[in-house]
Amino acid sequence: MMNRQFGKILVTGATGLVGSRLLPRLVEAGYDCSALVRGKEVTAGVTPIEGDLFDQPTLQAAVKDAVAIIHLAAVFRSPDTDLIWKSNLEGTRNLINAVKHNAADARFILASTSNVYDASNPHPGREDDALNPQHAYPASKVAAEKELRESGLNWSVLRFPFVYGDGDGHLEELPKHVVAAKFHPAMRMSTIHHRDIYTAIVMALQGTMDDRVVNIADEAPTTLYELLQLVREPMAPSAAPLVNPWHLHIDASLARSLGFRASVRTVHQAAQEKLL
Asked: Which of 64, 150, 175, 185 could form a disulfide with 235 if both were Cys (CB 3.0 to 4.6 A apart)?
């Protein structure tokens, strides 16, 4: 049964880590979803629209009649910083312009990242913290957020921490990044399961997060030591002082005050219920 509260929802990044797990949940809930794709198959029940963020004619047609845009498309781990900036900032700018001219009343939901917060924060990252990220991915996301906030559209920005679950393999990739960064085993990292990305996106679709930047996270930032144990890649223990104790840890109290409740409250719950 179609969710009659909503019309067409356009999703970018539909075949990525988040999109490929979000879309089946939206379809199952009855939302009318279209996906901007370039020669890739999409979830059954989703209308594919051939094109990309730099193909203006198709982009204009893709957003036409949409009541909501869920913008997930982004480049993250790449040595090509020009590609990161082009995709994450210019691509977002193109999408914003297309929406302004063809679906000005649409609700525009931008997926962003907790990596925007400073490593030396004196507290968990909060939405009102001053931001000055040094790496291309978070810096491009901050710039994209600014474009959207100043666009005049009906917007919301959801900042996600480490995403995992549904067999996505992301947690299994964590050890190599932890080792490369020489992180302390006692560092706690905020996390969010794909099931609760869906929870947050639905809240945003319903307008709960309009005109807000909102951190989305579960209830228990978990140490890297414990996270690596879950994927059977143990870290060397250490009793050395932990520098920058709030790095990768975000404050999700605003989301909770708006009614967000993670159904997968901890990574340990996910492991127990075989949701990894």
From this structure: 185
